[in-house]
Backbone:
């Protein structure tokens, strides 16, 4: 990628965020023949579709601490799921979860059963697969966006300045708002929409146990009406039926929000409290793991979604025809992997329409 009059790196499109929405969008734009660069603040790919590697039972195992599984209701995502199943990247984990409610622990209603898919290598393996053909600059946090006469100017925390003819921002709305406040007039409708988008937070606890603990007979438990705990997953059942248990517990949003600014030791205590609660409600041995890690998700799931799969506009620094800007993410189309996927597809389509570029053959396929 070379300079455009200036000596700044230049791309047809810069996509901010290498979560599901950003990666799906970038892939479709690449297929349409555009030069695309993705900027991602983290070292890893996939955003909230996240996996940690931990030492457990003498081996290094993946543990999903963000998205637990993938479901596919739309035709487009179902087609992609079939392709991933045939590549062995995805497998069906379970059709039936358990519920923990006022009646105790029991299998969910058979009418709610549906395939829940996982990656044997951890959910972030999906993101790595999606990013294969893409140019991604990692550990590159965008800190400022400016519309110039002919291009967007994008500045990052490592001191780089990029330029792009078009911009896609695929990050949670509360993180997007301060970036766009700088670039858009304060009267912009887009800014007020972003201002309404709120997220729930979530404390995730990962815990591993020794051989002695009885293997649970559930794979995942949705907890209803429990303020402390919303989910309990037997992550090790995604890897092998016989592995000593590794569980992932997700704290309820209100309880989790108490720990957003907690110190490491307070966070660790919160993790122990959550495991003690899980032990009381589900299985006593869960209180005493061999190891435990805690992760805090400030932006976990959107409270509500926009009902528009992505938002597109043109932004101008002067009277010139404005520069294309498209915003995407799970806060637009639905707070799950599927919602982020649909939003990324829609963002690519929107941008291609704005640029007058025909959609590539079999648009939607990856
Ligand atoms: C605890 C938890 C459990 C979940 N469980 C499920 C589940 O079981 N099934 C399901 O389908 N979904 C689940 N989800 C939701 C699912 O993970 C998300 O809906 C989806 O991954 C969102 O994708 P996204 O691309 O919209 O956003 P993100 O995944 O948030 O991606 C945004 C990316 O942008 C990057 N970024 C942010 N700001 C900047 C910046 N300034 N510069 C550069 N990069 C930036 C971030 O690092 C991130 O990689 C869960 C989420 C959480 C947190």
Residues:
């Amino acid at each position: 990628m070379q300079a455009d009059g200036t000596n700044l790196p230049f791309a047809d499109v810069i996509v901010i965020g290498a979560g599901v929405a950003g990666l799906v969008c970038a892939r479709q734009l690449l297929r349409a023949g555009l030069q695309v660069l993705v900027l991602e603040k983290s070292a890893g790919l996939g955003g909230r579709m996240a996996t940690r590697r931990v030492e457990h039972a003498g081996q290094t195992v993946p543990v999903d601490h963000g998205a637990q599984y993938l479901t596919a209701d739309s035709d487009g995502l179902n087609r992609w799921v079939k392709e991933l199943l045939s590549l062995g990247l995805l497998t069906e984990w379970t059709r039936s979860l358990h519920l923990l409610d006022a009646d105790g622990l029991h299998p969910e209603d058979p009418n709610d059963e549906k395939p829940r898919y996982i990656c044997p290598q951890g959910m972030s393996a999906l993101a790595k697969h999606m990013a294969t053909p893409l140019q991604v600059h990692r550990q590159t946090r965008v800190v400022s966006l400016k519309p110039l006469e002919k291009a967007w100017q994008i500045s990052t925390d490592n001191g780089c300045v990029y330029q792009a003819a078009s911009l896609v921002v695929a990050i949670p709305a509360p993180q997007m708002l301060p970036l766009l406040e700088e670039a858009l007039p304060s009267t912009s409708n887009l800014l007020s929409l972003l201002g309404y988008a709120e997220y729930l937070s979530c404390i995730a606890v990962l815990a591993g146990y020794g051989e002695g603990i009885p293997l649970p007979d559930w794979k995942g438990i949705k907890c209803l009406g429990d303020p402390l705990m919303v989910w309990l997953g037997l992550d090790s059942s995604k890897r092998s039926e016989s592995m000593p248990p590794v569980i992932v517990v997700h704290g309820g949003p209100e309880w989790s929000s108490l720990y957003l600014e907690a110190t490491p030791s307070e966070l660790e205590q919160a993790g122990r409290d959550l495991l003690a609660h899980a032990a009381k409600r589900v299985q006593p041995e869960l209180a005493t793991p061999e190891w435990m890690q805690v992760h805090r998700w400030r932006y976990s799931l959107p409270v509500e979604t926009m009902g528009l799969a992505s938002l597109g506009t043109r932004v101008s620094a002067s009277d010139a025809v404005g520069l294309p800007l498209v915003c995407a993410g799970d806060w637009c189309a639905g707070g799950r992997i599927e919602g982020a996927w649909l939003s990324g597809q829609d963002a690519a389509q929107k941008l291609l329409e704005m640029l007058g570029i025909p959609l590539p053959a079999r648009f939607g396929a990856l």
Notes: The chain has a mean pLDDT of 94. The first helix runs from residue 20 to 31. The two ends are 24 Å apart (CA to CA).
